[in-house]
Here is the input.
Amino acid sequence: MESTEKTRRAKFLADAMSTGPRYEPEVEDAAHAHKDTRIAIPTPMLDIVRRDGSIRSFSYAHLTEVEFEPGDTITLKFTNGAEVIAEGSGLARTRKQVRLHRADEIRECSPSELLLQGEGVSRVEKIYITEAEKA
Here is the structure.
């Protein structure tokens, strides 16, 4: 009888421990808000995600300049001579996150995403990547 109770207890514990924690929406929102207010913890690389799903990662350590132009264009310049230009709307917040090394990615939106996103949301319509001339 004792082994059966142990087996039941072990199964009960295994079932209880196999389900991850469930959070209320407020807790998930707080986690996102925390990322915006956290101290700049170095993110090793910035992902540039294209509309076709391809991803290119650039090292934050090699980011030398972030330029923002009214009309919402961000230009990122790297030590290897590569340049990433993101065009869209509402990109001031993205510029701030990149400047502080808090952005994980800059993602090019699909046409349907551009229509669905609301006001005040960053929208990257097009990304251009240029390479330095090799000698």
The chain has two domains: 2-34, 42-130. The mean pLDDT is 79. The CA atoms of residues 81 and 134 lie 10 Å apart.
